[in-house]
């Protein structure tokens, strides 16, 4: 069989399936978000008869969208900064100090990824109840998010720290630099992409996180994913769900593309899970 | 190692690893404790196995266990089965391979709930699939596809979401095999299938195991797909756990939670061993 | 036995091989020698079936195999990187090809044992490749090809990853095994001393074309072009004007160093001519040619002198270590040691 021909066939198949798998559903979501309730979009019409941003403004004014956006976009940066701060010393130790048990320590850092998210969510909320700390939900979510995504932060920063070259540090010392100056000239250049990548990845993961926001946040704190979830439940209003989906996905795509570029400089082989 | 260095290392590890161990440790501890009757939020705490015997005896529980394992295993198997040939196909760059790779990995960018929404859109009663089928004359009237009892919707969504992740891991593993080694196999007379069985499969086993385990645990413990597009007459273990908690029955929720963790652990180990055996990799 | 007929290979606009033809005899050890990028590895891949030629054919034992895929061709390749299967033991590596060919177990064991003994691998059979040294891995790679008893065994610079001492040792082993088994071999290298030491014939390549095919001795003594003269051994390249040439094969040439005599052989040369002579063939002490020594490099067995005279710079090697920088040196050249080259002057 001719390889080039087979390749073209397979490529055409993939593009075709992608069209059905991705492009069409997304286009539909966009269209649904633009449906004007004046004329409902019934099954017999290819495009919505009237399109407007009604849904978008309506949701902005009347639903919890505003508070969800505020919650999500304040939780995320807080979790990101907290995660970065917590990960920094640990990553330094794992990346630059050699001690017995280091590999085991690295493995143990991955624990939050292994425990199913709903278990973490439910029993963390149980702990909060036991300790009487269940009033400050925002703080609880920030804390939980930062610990949950620490594995990513630690992993990225550890690699960044490993890339700091000892001979640069030694040269700086040799030339009389203070510890802070040494940090700035030898460590920071290697750490910068790692720090940006960490902030970005925790940010993205936090925006998308569902289990903890759902279990701990409800009913006071609404995030975009929990709002979308309720929109998919009993009160399934398709256009509202469409608006929420787009709000969730579109910034995400851009952020992920930026992240990918950063990761290439910070850490050649890392993955991110979703959902 | 001198004591001072150890102190420094431990101090540095505390905010990161220390907090992780603390949180996860406490979560697991309290789950186990509550399953045995401690830390009651109402009434007295006392050691008791009654919650275990009660939940384990319920048909609801055993059905949930079977169902969750079914979803977990099939999601992993389907994702890997699709990802392997794709990873091998994309091993050597050819014109358009980067574009294809990007298209195949695109679902990684889409949140699970959004995927569920898009899926509902497509298969809903008035959705695209029904319209297309009717338009093509295959069906005479719309069919109710959502929430089907075989959980095809859930499996489709899990595969949609997880196949790109498996592809990512397997592509890395496959590309790490040196071209020379594959050429040597060809030179020794191995055709495409023999090369896969004897060289590619054994050398990519760890990547495949990692992907299988991660996908299995994720699908086993799924809540969102199940509650949005899953069968209404079955519950997943996570769903069951949440429903207990919502009713205030923390102890039964804990029993389900601990069972979930045990099944995740045991199931992962079993899958890893089976995967290795099937790929006839070496246990070294 | 192997016919390489007018093979050309282009990658886009780059022509890697151009109308390459060569016949290799049964049991012959022929080396493809040339600088990096000259096309020798490309040719090897075409012979073994990994690349298809743009034009031309390959025949093995009279049968056209140009369209036969690599896995079905009766060739075995020894890779530069050894390409051992990392997850298989030495024994399993050696057996791999035999199992693919469905050779029966008794025959398989016999062949493996035979080759393992010959290569000294008996102790290593259960080890994994990453537990072996470079030299041992090289031998496993060789053994894996040998057990196949192929019509042709191909070597792609197999010694280049070994250190110098090991290289010499393994070089001898490869040649001895090839002779013992009578295997037809095509060997690719850029190292001319390897080529000279091991080969029955050498084909010198440059930019995808054959420049000269000859035995090592003839190649060394009678290079045909400046490229060959300079690539194999050291050479002093000069130009000169032919004053007289006669039918019995002698020619007198006027050069900047002075008049020289050369064998011109049967060919006729124009008046302007290129010639070469080897640094170690200069008969030092007395003679018509002279120059001043500007650099001296003591090499143990001989001394390498860089000499200048009459606007020329040339090298002389002598085992008499009596010369120092600044001395004047006189020497003569036997007419057998002056070689006329086919290049234009």
What would you say this structure looks like, in words?
By secondary structure, chain A is mostly helical. Helix content of chain A is 75%, strand content 0%. Chain A has a single domain, classed as Orthogonal Bundle (MetI-like fold), CATH 1.10.3720. Chain A is globular and about 75 Å long. By secondary structure, chain B is an all-alpha fold. Chain B is 73% helix and 0% strand. The model of chain B has no long low-confidence stretch (mean pLDDT 86). Chain C has 345 residues and is α+β, with helices and mostly antiparallel strands. Chain C has a 6-stranded mixed beta sheet with strand order 6-7-8-3-9-10, sandwiched between helices. A 5-stranded antiparallel beta sheet of chain C has the order 13-12-11-14-19. In chain C, strands 2-1-4-5 form a 4-stranded antiparallel beta sheet, with helices on one face. Chain C is elongated and about 70 Å long. The mean pLDDT of chain C is 89. Chains A and B meet through helix 1, helix 3, helix 5, helix 6 and helix 8 of A and helix 1, helix 4, helix 5, helix 7 and helix 10 of B.
């Amino acid at each position: 069989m001719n390889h080039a021909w087979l390749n073209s066939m397979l490529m055409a198949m993939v593009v075709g399936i992608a069209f059905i798998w991705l492009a069409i559903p997304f286009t539909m979501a966009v269209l649904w978000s633009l449906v004007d309730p004046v004329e409902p979009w019934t099954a017999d019409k290819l495009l919505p008869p009237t399109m407007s941003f009604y849904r978008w403004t309506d949701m902005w004014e009347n639903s919890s969208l505003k508070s969800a956006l505020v919650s999500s976009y304040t939780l995320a940066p807080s979790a990101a900064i907290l995660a970065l701060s917590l990960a920094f010393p640990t990553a330094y130790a794992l990346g630059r100090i050699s001690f017995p048990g280091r590999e085991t320590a690295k493995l143990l850092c991955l624990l939050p990824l292994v425990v199913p998210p709903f278990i973490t969510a439910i029993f963390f909320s149980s702990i909060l109840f036991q300790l009487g700390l269940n009033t400050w939900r925002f703080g609880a979510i920030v804390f939980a998010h930062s610990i949950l995504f620490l594995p990513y932060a630690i992993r990225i920063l550890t690699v960044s720290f490993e890339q700091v070259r000892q001979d640069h540090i030694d040269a700086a010392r040799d030339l009389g630099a203070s510890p802070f100056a040494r940090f700035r000239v030898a460590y920071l250049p290697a750490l910068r992409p790692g720090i940006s990548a960490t902030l970005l990845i925790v940010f993205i993961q936090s925006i998308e996180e569902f289990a903890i926001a759902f279990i701990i946040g409800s009913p006071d704190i609404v995030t975009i994913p929990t709002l979308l979830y309720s929109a998919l439940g009993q009160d399934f209003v398709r256009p509202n769900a469409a608006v929420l989906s787009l709000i969730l996905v579109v910034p995400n795509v851009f952020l992920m593309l930026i992240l990918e570029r950063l990761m290439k400089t910070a850490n050649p082989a890392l993955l991110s899970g979703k959902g | 190692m001198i004591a001072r260095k150890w102190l420094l290392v431990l101090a540095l590890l505390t905010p990161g690893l220390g907090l992780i161990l603390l949180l996860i440790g406490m979560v697991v501890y309290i789950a186990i404790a509550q399953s045995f009757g401690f830390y009651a939020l109402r009434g007295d705490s006392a050691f008791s196995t009654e919650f275990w015997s009660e939940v384990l005896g319920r048909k609801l529980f055993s059905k949930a266990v079977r169902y969750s394992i079914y979803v977990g295993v099939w999601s992993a198997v389907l994702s890997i089965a699709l990802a392997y040939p794709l990873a091998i196909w994309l091993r050597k760059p050819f014109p358009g391979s980067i574009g294809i790779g990007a298209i195949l990995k695109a679902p990684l960018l889409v949140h699970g709930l959004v995927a569920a929404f898009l899926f509902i859109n497509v298969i809903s009663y008035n959705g695209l699939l029904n319209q297309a089928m009717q338009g093509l004359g295959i069906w005479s009237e719309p069919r109710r596809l959502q929430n089907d009892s075989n959980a095809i919707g859930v499996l489709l969504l899990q595969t949609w979401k997880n196949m790109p992740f498996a592809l990512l891991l397997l592509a890395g593993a496959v590309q790490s095999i040196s071209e020379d080694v594959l050429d040597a196999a060809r030179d020794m007379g191995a055709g495409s299938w023999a090369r896969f069985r004897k060289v590619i499969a054994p050398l990519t086993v760890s990547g495949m195991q990692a992907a299988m385990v991660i996908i299995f645990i994720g699908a086993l413990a799924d809540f969102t797909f199940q509650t949005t597009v899953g069968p209404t007459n079955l519950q997943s273990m996570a769903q069951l756990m949440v429903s207990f908690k919502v009713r205030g029955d923390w102890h039964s929720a804990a029993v389900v939670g601990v069972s979930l963790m045990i099944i995740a652990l045991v199931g992962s180990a079993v899958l890893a061993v089976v995967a290795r055996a099937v790929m006839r990799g070496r246990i070294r | 036995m192997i016919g390489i007929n007018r093979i050309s290979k282009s990658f886009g606009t780059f022509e890697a091989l151009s109308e390459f033809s060569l016949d290799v005899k049964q049991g012959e050890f022929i080396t493809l020698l040339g600088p990096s990028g000259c096309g020798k590895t490309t040719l090897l891949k075409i012979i073994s079936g990994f690349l298809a030629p743009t034009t031309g054919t390959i025949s093995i034992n009279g049968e056209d195999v140009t369209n036969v895929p690599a896995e079905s061709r009766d060739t075995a390749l020894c890779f530069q990187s050894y390409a051992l299967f990392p997850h298989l033991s030495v024994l399993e590596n050696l057996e791999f090809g035999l199992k693919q060919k469905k050779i029966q177990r008794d025959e398989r064991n016999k062949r493996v044992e035979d080759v393992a003994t010959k290569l000294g691998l008996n102790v290593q059979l259960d080890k994994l490749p990453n537990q072996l040294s470079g030299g041992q891995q090289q031998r496993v790679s060789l053994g894996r090809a040998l057990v196949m008893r192929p019509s042709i065994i191909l070597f792609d610079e197999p010694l280049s990853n070994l250190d110098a001492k090991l290289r010499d040792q393994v070089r001898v082993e490869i040649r001895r095994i090839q002779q013992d088994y009578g295997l037809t071999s095509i060997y690719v290298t850029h190292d001319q001393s390897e080529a000279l030491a091991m080969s029955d014939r050498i084909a010198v390549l440059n930019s995808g074309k054959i420049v000269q095919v000859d035995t090592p001795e003839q190649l060394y003594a009678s290079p045909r072009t400046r490229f060959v003269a300079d690539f194999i051994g050291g050479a002093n390249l000069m130009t000169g004007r032919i004053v007289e040439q006669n039918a019995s094969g002698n020619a007198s040439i006027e050069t900047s160093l002075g008049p020289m005599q050369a064998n011109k052989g049967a060919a006729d040369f124009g008046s302007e001519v290129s010639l070469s002579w080897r640094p170690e063939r200069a008969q030092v002490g007395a003679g018509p040619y002279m120059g001043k020594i500007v650099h001296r490099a003591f090499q143990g067995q001989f001394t390498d002198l860089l000499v200048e005279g009459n606007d020329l710079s040339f090298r002389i090697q002598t085992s008499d270590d009596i010369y120092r920088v600044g001395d004047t040196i006189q020497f003569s050249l036997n007419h057998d040691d002056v070689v006329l080259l086919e290049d234009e002057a």
